[in-house]
Amino acid sequence: MSPSVLICDDSNMARKQVLRSLPEQWKTSAQTANNGAEALTLLRDNSIEVLFLDLTMPGIDGIGVLQGIKKLNLNCSVFVISADIQPEMQAKVKALGAKEFIRKPVKPDVLINHLQQHGLL
Amino acid sequence: MSEFHLTEDQQDCLQELINIAMGQASDQLARYLDTFVYLKVPSIESIDAKDLLQTLSQQQNTMAVVSQGFFGYEGIRGEALLSYQEEDSGRIGDLLGYEPDELSQDEQLIDISSILTTTFLNVFARQIDNQMSYNAPKLLPSVQNCLSEHLQEMTFNWDLALKININYQVTDYSFNCNMILLIPETAIINIKKVLDRILAEF
Which of B27, B37, B202 sits opposite A13 (nearest CB)? Predict the structure, then answer.
């Protein structure tokens, strides 16, 4: 059984990059969101188990989404995939409950490795 | 829509390449200054030469602009302009940890600009299998005539340029720096080719 997956990034290319890095059986059911607000709606109304989340987005950014997940008390494994690689930012997203920080551009072997480490594969 | 304008896909692809370059440049800056840099989504637009000068001179309290030309393979070239606000002038020495009189304020501005420009463009170039060379950075006092002269002196055709605006905001010091990359027409065509090549892989 593949989990329900959401990819949130304001860039179409970045969403595709994540999508094609996913395990084969996850690809068909993965949903996408262009921004933080859309992601929070999907997270609230669907039981999303795994979220791949960008940080720098217009409107509600990745930090806003992480805060929203906490506030709504949602049970979801979040993997942040971002270009904002500053150590302080990596620590911040982990403190807000993200499982991992993955630097952009994402590579399939790195992503799969992280999913395995967290028992999702 | 002219041949110099980017399609939606090309714009999206360029924006993502810029995001990654901006992220690494900010990380360098953050390490160098031992602080945190707040990132915003960069903006990309096409701009006429006459509007460009107006935009640049309209930025309030701009104290100085550091300009550095860059050129890579496949005809990819342009000019990076880093602009600083007046109220930040006294903070730059503090930020860089220089002793008073160690380096002039002008030299400090050139230092920090060069770090940002070369880190950004090296990461950008690496992603498109390119490599950049740089001219020596040049400090322009932000007197309108001076800026205008400088832009006219460039060997580019500036009828239309791609204006990429990236804001680096150092939170602890409320220090702000704007990076504007100007890509002239011929180079836009060359960048579009590179972007199409990347997009074809998706």
Answer: B202
For residue A17, what is the nearest residue in chain B, using CA coordinates? B202
Taking CB atoms and an 8 Å limit, are A89 and B36 in contact across chains? yes
Architecture of the domain made up of A5-117: 3-Layer(aba) Sandwich (3.40)
Mean pLDDT of A82-92: 96
Which residues, including other chains, have CB under 8 Å from residue B153's CB and lie 6 or more apart?
Answer: none
Render pLDDT for B34-72 as a digit per residue (tens, 0 to 9).
889 999 899 998 888 778 777 776 666 677 889 999 999
Inter-chain contact B23–A58, Cβ cutoff 8 Å?
no
Give the residue extent of every domain in chain A: 5-117
Classify strands B62-71 and B133-134 as parallel, antiparallel or unpaired.
antiparallel
Ordered structural domains, chain B, with CATH: 8-200 (3.40.1550.10)
DSSP for B72-127, please give it. -STT-EEEEEEEEEGGGTTHHHHHHTPPTTTS-HHHHHHHHHHHHHHHHHHHHHHH
Structure confidence at residue A42 as a pLDDT band (50, 70, 90): very high
pLDDT digits (tens, 9 = 90+) for B142-194: 566 677 777 777 766 667 788 888 988 887 766 778 898 988 888 999 999 99
CB-CB contact of A68 with A43 (8 Å): yes
C-alpha torsion A31→A37→A43→A46, nearest 10: -70
Interface contact A108, partner B, CB < 8 A: no
Phi, psi for residue A55 in degrees, rounded to 5: -105, -55
